[in-house]
């Protein structure tokens, strides 16, 4: 039996992570990807020390590496991912152009290819045949291997992205992707290197090393964020929340939340969670550059959290050998009843809204106002009950563990 380790209160079975699937079928080598993901790192390992033997890298060159890493990474997280792949918010044309150029600087293929493939990942997450970068094919495959060969799961299929195909900026980048990659790198690196008096230093650190780091920052989301961390919202897929990976990935590390609520512009949904991509999008909305930021209602979030707490409580009860599942079942039933009542209130409110549009009568409008107040009051009551259920469940588990220890 494999050893069981615990991370943030959730058991992880090491053997399950290391379990090998049948070997993947051979597929043609993707030489462009091999050049970018294998050859360039080899060049960096050789070129950087050779250059450093005869030249000193300027402080400006080192700073450029970290600043430009943020530029390219945020182009992926705020642009490719949350704007285009998930439509989590709307951006003005100037912001879309800026994010497109930032994402191009990251050299992770076009928005159309990236966004379509990512939607496929969400639809078929963990499926070894349909998920382009399924972690169930192993860490190496999910992190890098899926790009080095033309596997069927990663073949372009843009049927799931008609909106991207109708986006002029997306299609312009897709059509002229290679020239844009060259132009963006030349336009950023050469003037910056000239301005600080260290062209080669900026090209090597701000260009080459930054590109390699940017690649693996994104790849960590596909690999480690499906292996390492907690699952506070759902256990129906391998995605995990991980604070340390959130730091490395510009807020994308809260991956368990993202996989259950993919259309939220936030990955770190709690105010204290580190998510600079969320802060960037929010700041752009305050500047008039973004709008219609999509947020999952707090009730849905708390409901998912509480459902997982019940699951973990049942697991703990099984471990401690106590037959107290009836109490948990009763709490679940009460929660379901409250949620059904709240859903009925939402349905009543929607029906009255439709009546208001159809009839436009003052009496109906007055009912809408009354229902709105009723909805807010019931929403607050249900939220409070969720908190009470969580506190009661925590007390139950603390008492259970205390009695077991005694």
Give an account of the 3D structure.
- 67% of the residues lie in helices and 3% in strands.
- The protein has 16 helices and four strands.
- The strands form two sheets. Strands 1-2 form a two-stranded antiparallel sheet.
- Helix 3 packs across helix 4 and helix 3 crosses helix 5.
- The chain is globular and about 70 Å long.
Total number of domains: 2
Helix content: 55-70%
- How can the largest sheet be summarized? 2 strands, antiparallel
DSSP summary, beta strand count: 4
| Beta-strand fraction estimate | under 5%
Mean pLDDT: 84
Order of helices and strands: EEHHHEHHHHHHHHHHEHHH
The side-by-side strand order for the widest beta sheet comes to 1-2
pLDDT < 50 runs, ≥5 residues: 1-20
Shape: globular
Number of helices: 16
Distance between the termini: 28 Å
Overall structural class, as computed from helix and strand content, comes to: mainly alpha
C-alpha-based Rg, rounded: 25 Å
Keywords:
disordered N terminus, globular, 2 domains, single chain, 16 helices, 406 residues, 4 strands, two-stranded antiparallel sheet, mainly alpha
């Amino acid at each position: 039996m494999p050893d069981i380790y615990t991370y943030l209160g959730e058991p992880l079975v090491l053997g399950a992570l290391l379990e090998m699937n049948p070997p993947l079928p051979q597929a043609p080598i993707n030489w462009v990807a091999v050049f970018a993901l294998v050859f360039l790192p080899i060049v960096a390992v050789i070129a950087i020390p050779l250059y450093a033997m005869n030249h000193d890298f300027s402080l400006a060159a080192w700073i450029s590496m970290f600043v430009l890493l943020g530029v390219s990474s945020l182009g992926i997280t705020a642009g490719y991912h949350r704007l285009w792949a998930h439509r989590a918010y709307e951006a003005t044309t100037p912001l879309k152009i800026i994010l497109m150029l930032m994402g191009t600087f990251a050299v992770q293929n076009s928005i159309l290819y990236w966004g379509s493939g990512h939607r496929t990942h969400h639809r078929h997450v963990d499926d070894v045949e349909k998920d382009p970068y399924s972690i169930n094919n192993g860490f190496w495959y999910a992190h890098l291997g899926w790009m080095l060969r033309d596997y069927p799961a990663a073949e372009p299929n843009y049927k799931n992205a008609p909106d991207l195909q109708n986006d002029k900026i997306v299609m312009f980048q897709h059509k002229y992707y290679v020239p844009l990659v060259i132009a963006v790198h030349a336009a950023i690196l050469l003037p910056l290197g000239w301005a600080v008096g260290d062209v080669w230093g900026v090209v090597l650190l701000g260009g080459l090393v930054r590109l390699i780091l940017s690649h693996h920052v994104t790849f960590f989301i596909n690999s480690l964020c499906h292996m390492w961390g907690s699952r506070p919202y759902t256990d129906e897929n391998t995605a995990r929340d991980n604070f340390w990976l959130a730091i490395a990935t510009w807020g994308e590390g809260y991956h368990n939340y993202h996989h259950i609520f993919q259309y939220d512009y936030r990955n770190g949904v709690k105010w204290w969670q580190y998510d600079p991509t969320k802060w960037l999008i929010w700041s752009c909305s305050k500047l008039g550059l973004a709008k219609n930021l999509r947020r999952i209602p707090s009730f849905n979030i708390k409901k998912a959290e509480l459902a997982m707490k019940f699951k973990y409580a049942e697991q703990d009860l099984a471990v401690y050998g106590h037959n107290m599942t009836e109490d948990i079942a009763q709490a679940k039933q009460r929660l379901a009843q409250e949620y059904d009542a709240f859903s009925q209130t939402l349905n009543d409110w929607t029906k009255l809204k439709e009546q208001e549009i159809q009839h436009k009568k003052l009496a109906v409008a007055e009912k809408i106002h009354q229902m709105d107040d009723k909805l807010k009051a019931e929403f607050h009551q249900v939220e409070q009950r969720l908190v009470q259920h969580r506190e009661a469940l925590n007390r139950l588990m603390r008492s259970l563990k205390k009695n077991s220890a005694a």
